[in-house]
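User: Some background: our group keeps a shared notebook of sequences we're curious about, and every so often someone picks one and asks for a predicted structure to add to the entry. Today it's my turn. The entry only has the sequence so far, pasted here. Could you supply the structure so I can complete it?
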Amino acid sequence: MFDNCIIMAGGSGTRLWPASSSRLPKQFLPADGKKSFFSLAVERALAVTAGKVIIITGKSHIPNVIADTAKLDAGKKKRLLVIGEPEAKNTAPAVACAVVYSILNGGGEKMLVITSDHIIEPLKTFKSDAAIAAENAKNRKLVVFGITPARPETGYGYIETGKASAGAYEVTAFHEKPDLQTAEKYAESGRFFWNSGMFAFSANFMAEQFRRFAPDVFSCFEKLKIPSASSYKKNKGIHILNTWQGLSSAYRKTKSISFDYAIAEKCQSTVMIRVNFNWIDIGNWEEYVKVRSADNSQVFSVSSENCFVDSDIPVALAGVEDLIVVIRGGKNGSPASALITRKGRTQKVRDIVELIKKSGKTDIL
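Assistant: Of course. Here's the predicted structure to add to the notebook entry:
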């Protein structure tokens, strides 16, 4: 078991626009027809953690966190702590913030960092893999979770491994997203694994790594003091660190950098757990459609085939095929927006998002 767990719940997830937006990021969308990606991440965190589950999210997303955890029993709610980021600065500052909080409050001998926007199952297997990671983390190691490649994939970073020992592999290098030819070589080698973006470590060891490799990040947070009792508030039984003195200044001063770049690629004591659980990174609408149950109550279709519709207003399809149609009608004060794309071309959504940014109409993102 881990002492504390950090759930990274920031980001906007624009690859699933317009369902995912700055107002309702991907992690708060339904993952299995009922529960959100985030809700499932909370279940995983509680299952492998004896102490606190620290949720790092944007301040504007705290209502989403509360809504998704409100139905948990009182015992589970008591273990959750929400820290709202004053601004988005990528994953390294978020981890540094949680590490400092854990040290100040006397916890975090073994810490786990998990994502909030992936599908991971079954839970029993995740717990077994996490237990191996916990054993390695207490030995002054940075532990990463590697996914056996199911195909040559150009959309993920890779972990290159060496010899295996005590249930873990020596990490020899991290590699950026490759071209297809390189990805094919990686997939065939047996030594390269997809980087899941999840980590384990002890808090004091990680503080040392930050001081060594990213002091400009960690020094901003290391100046923080133990939050006073008045710094916390409760909303539907969930504890929120509402006013941590100095936190806004820390985020303003720190640079924006990922944990991979700041620490993982530089740490010289890194091992990888080859996971046994099933892992899906829902990176585009093509993949999301595979796990989503379509609600056809507002879809009226004539002579149309193999189409998927996700809409909060009625939609009619006539004589079309292989389309993904996503419409948000502007309810609850949100701007109206629509996406129509052919299956097999959903990677182009990222280009659409860039066009919207250049147009200055970022209110719809």
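Suggested note for the entry: The longest helix spans residues 123-137. The mean pLDDT is 93.
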